[in-house]
Amino acid sequence: MSSSLKFDVVIIGAGPAGCSTGYLLAKSGLNVLIIERGSEPGAKQLWGGKAYAQPLREVWPELDREAPIHRWISIERFSLVSGERVVTLEYKLGRKVAFTTYLSELVSWMAKKAEEAGAMIISKTRADEIVIKNGRVIGVRSGSDIVEADVVIDAEGINRILLEKIGLVSKLSPEHIGLGVKEVLKLNSEKINERFGLEDEEGVSWLVIGDVTRNIPGGGFIYTMRDTISLGIVVRVSSAYDAVERGELNKHVSEVLEDFRTHPYFYRLWSDAEVIEYGGRLVIENPVETMPKKLYMPGLIIVGDAAGTLVNTGYTFRGVDTAVYSGKIAAEIILEAFGKKDFSEEILKRYEEKIKLSYIYDEILRHKGVSDLMREKFLFKDLPRLLTGGFEKILEADYEEPKIIDGFRKTMRENNISLLRLLSVMIKLVSKL
Amino acid sequence: MSLNIIVLVKSVPDPKTPPTLKVDGSLDLKNVKIVVNPIDKYAVEAALQLKERYGGKIIGLSLGDHDNIDIFREIIAMGVDSFIYIKDPDYQRFDTLQKSYVLSKAIKKIEKDLGRVDLVLCGVESSDTNMGVLASQIGEWLEIPSISYVDKILEIKNGSIIVKKIIEDGFITLRSRMPVVLSIADTGYEPRIPSLRDTIMARRREIPIWKTSDLGLEFREIVLKTVRFKQIESKRLGKIFRDEDVDKMIDRFFEELKRDGVSLLR
Fold first, then answer.
1. Whole-prediction pTM
2. Is the Cβ pair B200, A35 closer than 8 Å?
3. Which residues of A touch B205 (CB under 8 A)?
4. How far apart are CA B153 and CA B120, in angstroms?
5. What is the per-residue pLDDT across A63-111, written as a single tens digit (0 to 9) for each?
6. Could you give the CA distance from residue A73 to residue A386 in angstroms, rounded to a whole number?
7. Distance of CA B249 to CAs B237, B254, B258, Å?
8. How far apart are CA A25 and CA A424, in angstroms?
9. What's the first-to-final CA gap in chain B, in angstroms?
10. Closest-CA distance of chain B to residue A295, Å
């Protein structure tokens, strides 16, 4: 029984990134401590939605069998809404790519895995400071106690208080942040299956843009869980503020969510469901701009949301798999560092190099600028109007149906959309996404 | 002076999560998170403050049937010197008298090892059954005094203890000889939050598990028999009595109850 407060690795935060890193390092025999501020791992995780499986399987091959998976996404839907009219595109998937779950359940499973592998997880404990001595991170301070470690892993999440303190990131501004608001509706699984056209364990992931966000840049999402439906909206904080200024929004973005929930086309799906939970979460809109200056320093590695691995693809956010994958890369480099007993920048900087060569960074770069595009009124207002208006003329014709092209041409004229503008935005959209 | 203190700690279903019931109406304990009874932490805090003031030793003691001994590590991290868990598969069928009997036997055994036990502390009641009878029952089994609803322990001097006890409309100060059993309320103390260091150290500690058979128990038959579980529905009738005369109002109140089919034990 040793009384020393020294671990090989101390990890700040028991989220997806912290748990995956901790699991892999503990499994390789390192002495790992994970400090979590919430009452238990997963307690602070609000998100319920879609997670991509393959990057997770690389860390936990037993994922499909053991993890708390609610439904495998079998149908992806994309809807454009204008007034009562809705144009929907549906894609039926051919294999198990992504699943729906509550992050609280998933993280609690990941934490259990890490503990079984030998990591010590201590909850209800706040890390107050990353302790630096002679330019090198030597441990973490909590209250008056300092826990020393050869490597500290910062997995503190989107609100990077500790990294701000040591100057590796600057404060986030409203321009950089999106606000997600969601509700969880309780509905039994038979009704969910019936109304969404699903078999048991099959799920829907559904994105909605247009009127449902009162044309504020952003989008709505619907995910089917086992016996609940998650629905929500994500809007940019600064755009929401502008909308209030313009009088399009009264006070709070939750009004937008209420509009979405009670939109007649969607409401019929959950009219008899009960709202059992609601909440909000911040998301980074511009990962490249908000990434830490460096993802490492001597004795420190940054993983997950804190490292800016949340990818905003414009139509969805992808953060769980990228966080886990960043943890996997971190674990590889740290094991190498322990092999050589060298925790200097020379070794740890290879983590950032590997991140930048990985699919995470590819995704981030690929979607760079997408958030600017997402600000275009065209996408949230004009495109839904154009499509619903065009189809209205063709499909709701009482007598003679116009030619398809004429239907859309007329709608463009009515909404002052020029062909040139349409083409230029479509080209931009296709090239960015 | 140095005190030997035993603190009784109960495991309860997490009071923060809504309970789920089985088909027969009983509590579904399978998917329930087990935690330390919140009020017991006030008793632990009281013991720690006594130790800080007078010196001594604190032993935590719990009785239950689950395997989740890690929940007791928070109590160890707060500063108790050692912790003993008595595990009995029949625990759920014990009534309070049997529980207190097992615990008092364990206290006797600990007393044999320590030479002397000065104080037995527990929380005023548990969040699952809210009976509040443990302190007096332990006192009876051990044939020592007991005081329930203690707000604060004021002083210990010459083998006696002075406590501030909560009564219906205020407080009363009582003196008792020791050893004594006290149930501590959640009013006079504020349980400390263990430091990271103490939490880590507590993870590395052994928690001995005793069996009831180790305690030389004299009775084993289960006296508590569950006939059935019934969920009581409550209804607000919104009747207000406004008569001036209090006695009259009380009479009318009881009349109304009788009319609504409520039978009274008088």
1. 0.84
2. no
3. 1
4. 13
5. 999 999 999 999 999 998 988 889 999 999 999 999 999 888 999 999 9
6. 29
7. 16, 9, 14
8. 49
9. 49
10. 26
Question: At which of A237, A261, A284 does a domain end?
Answer: A284
**Could you tell me if A256 and A181 lie in one domain?**
yes
Chain B residues with beta carbon closer than 8 angstroms to that of A33: 200
Q: Which of the four CATH numbers 3.40.50.2300, 3.40.50.620, 2.60.40.3410, 3.90.1150.10 does domain B3-215 have?
A: 3.40.50.620
Mean pLDDT value across residues A160-164 = 93
Domain boundaries, chain B: 3-215, 234-266
Quick one: which H or E segment has residue A180?
A: strand A177-186
CATH number, domain with residue A239 = 3.30.70
Q: Residue A386 has which token pair?
A: 């154009």
Is the minimum CB–CB distance between A420 and chain B shorter than 8 Å? no
Q: Is A144 on the interface with B (CB under 8 A)?
A: yes
Question: What is the three-state SS of B62-131?
Answer: EEECCCCHHHHHHHHHHCCCEEEEEECCCHHHCCHHHHHHHHHHHHHHHHHHHCCCCEEEEECCCCCCCC
Residue A116 belongs to some domain of the structure: yes
| Containing structural domain, residue A158 | 6-68+102-173+287-368
User: Amino acid letter at B56?
Assistant: G
Q: A137 with A187, same domain?
A: no
Cβ of A115: how many Cβ atoms within 10 Å? 20
Which two structure tokens, joined as six digits, stand for B10?
Answer: 């109960």
B203 touches chain A (CB under 8 A): yes
Answer yes or no: do B200 and A147 touch at CB < 8 A. yes
Nearest CA in chain B to A126: B196
Q: Cβ contacts (< 8 Å) between B200 and chain A: which residues?
A: 5, 33, 120, 122, 147
Q: The complex's ipTM?
A: 0.76
> Mutating which of A104, A120, A122 best tests the B interface, going by the most B Cβ atoms within 10 A?
A122
Q: Which of A2, A3, A125 minimises the CB distance to B196?
A: A125
A238 and A197 share a domain? Answer: yes
Across residues B240-265, what is the average pLDDT?
Answer: 83
Residue B201 contacts A, CB cutoff 8 Å: yes
Nearest CA distance, A338 vs chain B (angstrom): 23
Read off the tokens for A188: 């039994």
The answer to whether residues A154 and A130 touch, using CB atoms and an 8 Å cutoff, is yes
